[in-house]
Design a protein that fits this description.
Elements (H helix, E strand, L loop, with lengths): L2 H26 L6 H4 L2 E8 L2 E10 L2 E2 L3 E2 H4 L8 E10 L3 E17 L4 E3 L2 E3 L4 E21 L3 E20 L3 E21 L4 E14 L2 E14 L5 E18 L2 E19 L1
Antiparallel strand pairs: 1-5, 1-15, 2-3, 2-4, 2-15, 5-6, 6-9, 7-8, 9-10, 10-11, 11-12, 12-13, 13-14, 14-15
Length: about 270
C-alpha cells in the first residue's frame, strides 16, 4: 500500500474518532423546548383528590362557640374528588398572568357526641345535626420571571386567594345557624419551571400570606408541584400535588368565623397550549 493511501486512511480514522467524541457533547448542548415554557396560552382541567381537615368556630355578640372538628364531630367526609381548572397567559416576554380554581362542597348528618355552640344556637349532646361546609378557592396571580431561558424560568408574583365559605348547622326543634364569608387573601409567590425534554417538564409554586387587615386576620400557605408530559404539539397530560393551609378569622356583620383548614392531595389533569 502506498504511503499516500496510508496517510489518507489514517486521517479518515482520526476524523471519525474526533467526530464520534464530539457528537455526544454537541447533543448534550441541545436545549429542550417544552410547550409549557414556550406557548403564550396554557389552560387545563382535571380531577383533584384532596384530604381535608376542618376546624371552625362561629362567634356572635351573644354566642361564643368552641372550635368544632367537622370531620370528627359532625361526621363530614375527609376526602372527596372534585374538578379543578387552571390557566396561564404569557405576555411581555417575562410576565405571566395565571389562575387556578377548585370547589369542595360537603355535608354531614349525625347524632353529635358533645355539646356544640355554633353562633347563637346551642346543640346539646345527642342532637341529630345536619351540617354543610362549602368552600371555593380562586387563585389569581401576576408574576415576573427574573430569570428566563428557553428551558427554564424562576420568578416571583403577587396575587390573591379568593377563599369563599358557606357553613351551616341545622337541627329539628333548634333551627339553623348559617354564615357565609369571602376572604380575599393576598399572597406573595415564588415559582419555577424546568424542561427535562421536549415532552417532559416540571414546575413548582409556593404562595404565602400572613397579615391582618380590615376584617381579615390570619395566614395562608399554598404549594403546587406538577410533572407535565406533552406528547402532542398542543395537548398534554400531567400529575400534580396541591397543599393548601388556611388559618384565618373573618368578621362580617359583627360575627366572626374562625377557620383552620388543610387540603392536600394529588391532581390528574389534561392541558392544551398554543
Amino acid at each position: 500500500m502506498k504511503l499516500s493511501q496510508k496517510m489518507t486512511i489514517k486521517t479518515t480514522l482520526i476524523a471519525a474518532a474526533v467526530a464520534a467524541a464530539v457528537a455526544p457533547a454537541g447533543a448534550q448542548d441541545v436545549v429542550p423546548l417544552h410547550p409549557a415554557l414556550q406557548d403564550k396560552f396554557y389552560i387545563g382541567a382535571g380531577a383533584f383528590f384532596p384530604r381535608t381537615t376542618t376546624s371552625a368556630q362561629l362567634t356572635t355578640p351573644t354566642g361564643l362557640g368552641a372550635a368544632i372538628d367537622f370531620e370528627d364531630a359532625l361526621a363530614m367526609a375527609s376526602s372527596k374528588t372534585v374538578p379543578a381548572f387552571f390557566g396561564r397567559w404569557r405576555f411581555g416576554g417575562r410576565w405571566r398572568l395565571e389562575a387556578e380554581y377548585f370547589r369542595l362542597d360537603r355535608s354531614g348528618d349525625t347524632t353529635i357526641g358533645r355539646d356544640i355552640q355554633w353562633g347563637d344556637k346551642f346543640y346539646p349532646l345527642g342532637t341529630r345535626v345536619q351540617s354543610r361546609f362549602d368552600f371555593a378557592d380562586l387563585r389569581i396571580s401576576a408574576g415576573y420571571s427574573f430569570f428566563r431561558t428557553k428551558d427554564k424560568e424562576f420568578g416571583v408574583g403577587l396575587g390573591l386567594h379568593m377563599a369563599a365559605y358557606d357553613v351551616s348547622l341545622t337541627a329539628d326543634g333548634i333551627g339553623s345557624e348559617q354564615q357565609d364569608v369571602t376572604a380575599p387573601l393576598p399572597v406573595l409567590s415564588v415559582y419555577g419551571q424546568f424542561a427535562l425534554t421536549d415532552r417532559w417538564a416540571v414546575s413548582a409554586r409556593l404562595d404565602r400570606f400572613s397579615l391582618a387587615y380590615e376584617n381579615y386576620d390570619g395566614s395562608l400557605t399554598s404549594l403546587g408541584v406538577d410533572v407535565m408530559y406533552q406528547p402532542f404539539k398542543h395537548v398534554g397530560f400531567g400529575l400534580g400535588y396541591r397543599n393548601l393551609f388556611i388559618d384565618a378569622q373573618v368578621e362580617k356583620s359583627g360575627r366572626t368565623l374562625s377557620l383552620k383548614q388543610t387540603f392536600q392531595g394529588p391532581m390528574l389533569f389534561m392541558n392544551a397550549s398554543f
